[in-house]
Amino acid sequence: MTEALSAPGPLDALTDVAGIRVGHARVPGRGALSGTTVVLAPEGGAVAAVDVRGGGPGTRETDALDPRNLVQRIDAVVLTGGSAYGLDAASGVMAWLEEQGRGVRVGPDPSQVVPVVPAACLFDLGRGGDWRARPDASTGRAAAEAAAASAPGAQVAEGSVGAGTGAVAGQLKGGVGTASVRLPSGTTVAALAVVNAAGSVVDPRTGVLYGKYGAGEPPAHPAPPVHEAACRRLAEISGSTRPDGGPDGDAPGSGVFNTTLAVVATDAALTRAQAQKLAGTAHDGLARAVRPVHLLTDGDTVFALSTGRLPLPQEPTAALNGILAAAADVLTRAIVKAAGAAEGVDGPGGTFPSYSELYGTA
User: E strands along the chain, which residues?
Assistant: First the structure.
């Protein structure tokens, strides 16, 4: 058995990496179906990197994470709905961090800091019916405060929460999922995914979530009548008409524009270049769980964080390879868990049943 197939951490969540906290916030109001998720680093920040592979990304401060550039550590990552409008959520997180005195020191006074807050957005505009109901600075602040208020090692809410509130995956409701693994070396590797993909998370031949293939044991297939009923239901939805007379596929928020976002984290001490490799390798886990992936209408983005609690051994190649492989594995599982935890919606912005509604919870 390889390290990447080791047992999950105690919570099977991103917060199994000591010091990492996660907070969600939802846009309030009727017609709103969007939100923001904040991943808060430990005091002192974390080494960070990013790998963007989708053809339609919406990001902020990702250039600061280039290993060639100045900033060494960051204090938070923002994942948000609202497309490019939703990137304003990072302003609220930035203001909250400034109040805590956290950020890049730029003056003699400890309060003189500039927080660097990398962010990425997904497209969910109009999915609740109101095109203008999207995250702003107040949503980002609420998510940051929720993260800070959570206990160390707290469980992470999954499903239709935070940035996953309005997410969809193909024809199904998407959402937030998280997973972790504890390697024999004691290193923890974990991931949090917000699944909002143009591609599908489900094998159309069997109804099995793609991410369950190759997980060790052959996945159980839904009973043929269950799969047939699910296919009929999805066909009915895709063929239905909206009150304006147009097909669902032309409706705002129908899945024309997408993006899967993720954060992978480890307590191993990585350089910025190694963290960037971690973010890139984690994309392999995304490709195992969503098909097709990295399309022109996706903005698929993976951030990597290293808290540096455990040093790599003097001969680090084998250890680093184990961490890289584990990152792909946990991201795949996080996507599976997101699909399983999502709650379906049927409203003015479209009809998106959940996987559990169609296939049950098994």
Answer: 21-26, 35-40, 47-52, 59-60, 76-80, 104-105, 113-114, 119-121, 168-169, 172-173, 175-182, 188-195, 261-268, 301-310, 345-347, 350-352
